[in-house]
Write the structure tokens for this entry.
Amino acid sequence: MWLFQLLNSALAQADSSTFMPPAATELASQVDSIYSFLLWASLISFVLLIGGMIFFVIKYKRRTPNDKTAYITHNHTLEFLWSFIPFCIFIFAFAWGWIVFHQYRSMPENGLEIHVVAKKWDWRFIYKNGREVTAGVDDQGNKTPATMVVPLGRPVKLIMASEKVNPASNEDPRDRPVLHSFYVPAFRQKQDVVPGRYTTLWFQATELGTFNVFCAEYCGDGHYSMRAAVKVVKPAEYEEWLSGEAAGGAGGKPLSLAEQGKNIYATHMCIGCHSLNGSAGSGPTWKGIWGHEVATDKGTVKIDENYIRESILQPNAKIVNGFQGGVMPSFAGQLKDDEINALIEFIKTVK
Amino acid sequence: MANNHAHDSHGAGHNYLNHEKGLWSWLTTLDHKRIGIMYFVTVMAFFLVGGLAALTIRTELFSANRLVDGHVTGAVVTASQYTRLMTYHGAIMVFLVIIPGIPAFLGNFFLPLQIGAKDVAFPRLNLLSWYCLLGGAALAVTSMFFGGADTGWTFYTPYSISLSKAVVLLVSGAFVGGFSSILTGLNFVATVHKLRAPGMTMNRIPLFVWALYSTAILQVLATPVLAITLLLIAMENVFQIGFFDPSLGGDPVLFQHFFWFYSHPAVYIMILPAFGVISELIATFSRKTIFGYTAIAYSSIAIAAVSFFVWGHHMFVSGQSEIAGVVFSAITMLVGVPTAIKVFNWVATLYKASINMASPMLFAMGFMFLFTIGGVTGIMLATTAIDLHFHDTYFVVAHFHYVMVGGTLMAIMGGIYYWFPKMFGKMCNEVLAQASFFFIFVGFNVTFFPQFVLGAKGMPRRYYDYLPVFEPLNRMSSIGAYMIGTGFVIGLIAVIHALLSKQEPVGNNPWGGKTLEWTTTSPPPHDNFEKTPIVTAGPYEYR
């Protein structure tokens, strides 16, 4: 590990000439270091190899049609060296890449969670307190991308889902949700948004500023226009923005996601089978279940966003041990994606 | 193959071209050489169509679109035309040009000649394969009249599941065309195993044949997976069965696994034959035995085998687990090793050689230059953490064009100039040939090097329009595309000019090659050799 850290600090000095945009997270600078290492290794190998080729072509240019040439079929030492040295470089790049990749894939426990909803061809960001940011239109009629505001220096976890173009329509196949990909070049971070499940990514911004968000997975004619922005502000400014006047809109302050979820818990009769105090009903209690592992008829499952979502839409997919299958009806078509998100946020708060 | 036409065989001027006359004799021919030429013509026609689509794409991307006084400037096509152009450019170039390009055209013509055979093992299947390609192409063209497919050549679900007739027709086209590839592969495996001339042991077959043999195994094993996957897409579109669309109960990521399980080996179906061509060119134009024959031959097999286990490197950000990503990254690094070995062997062959920088050799050198860049950027993309940034950006676009165009197309061009005298008994004009190289090579770098920078800066691929900050590099790229176009037009002129020209007979062996095709007349007779050659030594015996 010390070796990678040493290289990291050495290469951070030389980053300006590698074509990458300014890095706005610590992990992004680490990616740049691996990239710089490979760029230099590539450049040196390329010059040696192609330089050697050009040197030979000039030096051994054909003089007569029947030139005598050396009869060399192989050379074990050379062949070993030019297999082994690239192998070592490749494995080194692989290992270093894995170390950084692992950090990208290790979600922080205490991150600020924001829901991201993608559809053709816009992004929507929903905060836990109910604040929602959507794309708008400016005076000239140009689309203005939705801007996600996040605090500097705090880990942010995005919970991402893809939704229908028109939530009311079930008919036109073109309205169905498709793949998108949330891509922030300044964070060197990208994750596909997959219909029918949640995917997550996290980042911790170390630079103030506004950074582009692109959709990187082709999603149709408007793919190129599916942009958003991440605005990194000081923590105090973030708190002010989050609870500020603009948050309310016309109808006053919105309910938080957990409060919305609590209402759905009552109105959709989840309350009939799932208790909040730990007592067993026809379904498992919701008290303290979040993030725990439970034994089901399909094996051990971690209770996370994807499990809750699946259990709401296909209740019989994985039944917790000790409970009967076939009891709970599917809520597919009855609960909108946003309502499922709200329920999930509510379950997270039942401790 | 067995053909009982009376002919006073091998008299002067008798060859496969004038063995029979008329269009019908071509359309029903079982001669591998004629089938190879028919592939040449069809692949060139598809290449023209795919190339025009590419030039239109680059014309659109020359300028960022801007709203000036309520009007959009800088657009030459609409977004929905653009997505179709991009889809057909990709689908045509991959399925109808690069995959059949070397095996079905140069391979069909020269594999039997290089192993001293009279034809391939199954001549009728060989002809059928050409009709499969044509049938596939016909379906693809038909799809254009049903609104056109706009899914990209990768047909990613669930976007491709939309009751679209065009998508169904296009995937059916790729399905039918795929059988062309399977049949060619089957034929080559059987031919290499059963029809080698006496004395032609496996350790004496030319490296082009080794490369085609490795490719053939991939074609036979991998293409059926694509066929099944495309069939599932068609069925899901027509009958709304939920394989891949979550709205119907399917899994969209499953499609990506199926698709890349074929399409990654397919990348090697596209590049391995090019390695074979380059080995031939380097040996002949250096007048020197190839360095590390065994290493080059077996590294082709190694690449073919390992290439089945790397498909997940297309899916690092798809939602697949961390451990899957890491395993695929590691195996991908392993593929890099045999690939690097080949390039080192070619350069080593030049040591103490006698190098003739004729046009085919120029293309071989160009290949090494471009392919090396394609290779090292592949290592960057295989590194999981870096791929998080580069995935689905122009960096990937640049990388695979460096490999597929800088690699395979350079090899096809070199191969055409190299074997042209054998195929037609005439030489291409060297000035035209070198001019075509110059424009293609320089134009290629002007087009695609800026795309690495665009990708690093964060421009995603498949974008109809881009932020103005990306404009200068896009302009450069578009100018380069016109240079490449000019280069290929000069190449076409060189070929047509040579075919129409009156020339002295070139003789059996104008380049001084040592492989068997150079021992027979140019063009070869219907049965390839006057009498079956007896082989007593390896393929590159320059002593």
Notes: Strands of chain B lie at 66-68, 71-73. Chain B touches chain A through 89 residues (CB under 8 Å). The mean pLDDT of chain B is 93.
